[in-house]
């Protein structure tokens, strides 16, 4: 006999809602993550979702954070350029969600925190934790490189061309030692 919904513990309910939100985010982006549609899918009252997530943006931030954590658990390849291309490919999968993240961050503290955390994760994945800064323009070079990566992603280039652009920019802007994006670069 199925367990009554009221007997599910809080973590199970939260996870059930997050799973549905993640499916919708991955299938259709922020707009597809309708709280009403999630409630219908889970056969629960829409207001019950707001019991666990105060706003749609809080649910968006929690669901997207779970997606990012899953991606972050994967092991990137060795080698600076291969790692950068791998990170670029991971970012490309979520370009639409990252655009929604940027847009919603002005309206929600939870989304703004996720955007900051995601940017830090991307910087760490691109440049590594312990790589030293190269001169006074290292932070600027790192930001310029991130801009090139974002631009290459927004152009929706074929994979080989994207790799060539990212590799070229990495070698010219970052080089073998790589910049450390720190407080001065933000």
SSE order and pairing:
Layout: H1 10-28, H2 35-42, H3 46-52, H4 56-72, H5 80-93, H6 95-104, H7 109-127, H8 138-154, H9 159-174
Helix pairs in contact: 1-2, 1-4, 2-3, 4-7, 5-7, 5-9, 6-7, 8-9
Short key terms for the protein model shown above:
186 residues; 9 helices; mainly alpha; 68% helix; single chain; disordered C terminus
Mind explaining what this structure looks like?
With 186 residues, this protein is mainly α. Helices cover 68% and strands 0% of the residues. The chain is built from 9 helices and no strands. Helix 1 packs across helix 2, helix 2 packs across helix 3 (46-52) and helix 5 (80-93) runs antiparallel to helix 7 (109-127).
Q: How many individual helices?
A: 9
Order of helices and strands: HHHHHHHHH
What is the general shape? elongated
The radius of gyration over CA amounts to 19 Å
Low-pLDDT regions: 129-133, 177-186
DSSP summary, beta strand count? 0
Sheet with the most strands, sense and barrel status? none
For the terminal residues, how far apart are their CA atoms? 56 Å
- Mean pLDDT over the residues: 81
Class by SSE composition: mainly alpha
Please state roughly what percent of the residues sit in beta strands, choosing from under 5%, 5-15%, 15-25%, 25-35%, 35-45% or over 45%.
under 5%
Outline:
It contains 9 helices and no strands. By secondary structure, it is mainly alpha-helical. Residues 129-133 and 177-186 have low confidence and may be disordered.
